[in-house]
Amino acid sequence: MNENLAKEILDKVKRDYDLTVDDYTRSRSFIPEDIASLADYAVAGDRILDSGCASGRLYKTFSRKEIDYFGVDLSEKMIGRAMADHPTGCFQMADSRFLSFPENYFDKIYSISVIHNIPSEEFRQQYLKELKRVLKPGGLLILRVWDFWKRRAMPQLFLDSLARKMPGRDKIDFFDVFVPWKNSAGQIVTERYFHCFTKRELEKIIRVAGFDIEKVWRDGQDPRTNIYLIARKP
Fold it and tell me: Which residues contact 113 (CB under 8 A, 6 or more apart)?
């Protein structure tokens, strides 16, 4: 994918999250079991970055511990909602490819369902390398992406993505899809961009970014299956 198209799609990602902030926050008002389990990697005294924090639902979990929490997100409206709902939290609007934090600042970084919204391999590497920069040596990256290959909607999404690659259509990357977002009335509000990671591809880009992978697994029990990865900064 060329850089101009990647920038256009990233701008669309921001607009889509601004557009869906109310429905998004309402549909994610609880902490699912898998995220609660990932939150257990954080311990009292840690300084945590929640990269792509959206409306701040992870803060609910970390606020119960003695943790120094920072949440950043590309969407201005998501950050506004996070600040309104969690006034004691520390939130800021930021592109996680270009963070204002100093090097070696965080003990743990959480990236929950974020990197699959970042277009192009180049931008995804920028994102991971910036997370590595602000993570302390020995610190952990705790990451989750949607596992589209195990989801029932994947065949149709893949056919749609092939149609977009026909002559005269936009030149998205292979395994890029656009997923309809429906509001509470069942109406399609927008189509959100996702990159469909395989487990092998996810492991590869994490290693290229300079992390050591400690654990990677799938959750095959949930129909909305995910891929999880724990990596350490050397």
Answer: 52, 144, 145, 146, 226
**DSSP-assigned letter for residue 172:** P
User: Is the pLDDT assigned to residue 158 strictly greater than 90?
Assistant: no
CA-CA distance, 42 to 176, in Å (whole number)?
32
SS3 68: strand
Neighbours of 4 (CB within 10 A): 8
Nearest to 231 by CA among 94, 115, 65: 115
- CB atoms inside a 10 Å sphere around CB 219: 16
How far is residue 69's CA from residue 58's CA, in Å, rounded to a whole number? 10
CA–CA dist 164, 199 (Å, integer): 24
Tokens 């400690």 belong to which residue?
A: 214
Over residues 75-99, the pLDDT tens digits come to 999 999 999 999 999 999 999 999 9
Question: What is the spatial distance between Cα 200 and Cα 212, in angstroms, rounded to a whole number?
Answer: 14
| CB-based contacts of 75, cutoff 8 Å, min separation 6 | 14, 17, 18, 21, 54, 93
